[in-house]
Amino acid sequence: MPVNVAVITFPGTNCEYDTVKALERIGYSAELVWHDTVKLDAYDALVLPGGFSYGDYLRPGAIARFSPVMQAVEEFAVSGGPVLGICNGFQLLTEAHLLPGALQKNASLKFICRSVDVRVDTTRSSLTNLSSVGKVLSLPINHFEGNYTCDDATLKILEEDERVLLRYVDNPNGSVHSIAGICNEQGNVAGMMPHPERASDELLGSTDGIVLFRSLCEGQFSR
Amino acid sequence: MLYELSVEIMPKPGIADPEGTTILRALHALGFDMTKRVTVGKVIRLQVEASTGEEALGIADSMVGKLLANPVIEVANVSLVQERAASPD
Hints:
The structure holds 2 protein chains of 2 kinds.
Chain A: E1 4-9, H1 16-25, E2 29-34, E3 45-48, H2 69-78, E4 83-86, H3 88-95, E5 102-104, E6 112-120, E7 136-143, E8 147-149, H4 152-160, E9 164-168, E10 179-183, E11 189-192, H5 210-218
Parallel strand pairs in A: 1-2, 1-3, 3-4, 4-11
Antiparallel strand pairs in A: 5-8, 6-7, 6-9, 9-10, 10-11
Chain B: E1 2-11, H1 18-29, E2 42-49, H2 53-68, E3 74-84
Antiparallel strand pairs in B: 1-2, 1-3
């Protein structure tokens, strides 16, 4: 049975096709799943892709968080299934309290769209288990609200429990401790601001995102 | 009774406010050098059916907790604007 991934789509999501294509090109089955879906039992992994769900009204992810599908996403996450939020999907996972902290406006006051280097900080997660600690990946970012922030107590826990998965080599947006991606306590729910789907083919200039999708779809880790 | 409420949502101290910073620079460029700080937030006006103003404020507070503000990056303040006998327009 091939791995079957649900790419969850909200009104205003705009990276869903890129994500499906990226997953399919490396051998997985991927389906667009509309936000009114309430059952996700048929899937092995979930991706919440980038975009501007509900026009980013109120705050990025704030409205999408109450979509019917989010109850099923939460159940999937609680049962230990791999869940990845990319960009707007990361913002959404923080709004849904599946990941701690929040993404605030970039410190530079600019929308940033370029490739950046991120370093893998731990392999103990659904997102990074097939990579190696210290490995530098070139991945595009494309955001205005990508500046990760959280209170000091949360930051201490994230660092002590090795829950910072990816760190910018040269912090582009002001994120605390250069955080580009984190995971939950169990390691199965991950969020990242860079776009691995845009680094999944030589034609796109980088294939560094592939290892992250492979980790999500078939990797093993312990925590 | 219909109550009109105002929910003021501001960035928490220490949270980036690029819009405020940009407006501050523009004010300085226009000669308003006396301006020391600009903070930009948002205001949400609500019309809420409730029996008392206190009840209306309580309802708005729970809206803030559930949806309207993110306590990681924002602070919210709810106030009663007016009590209206008229139906919503």
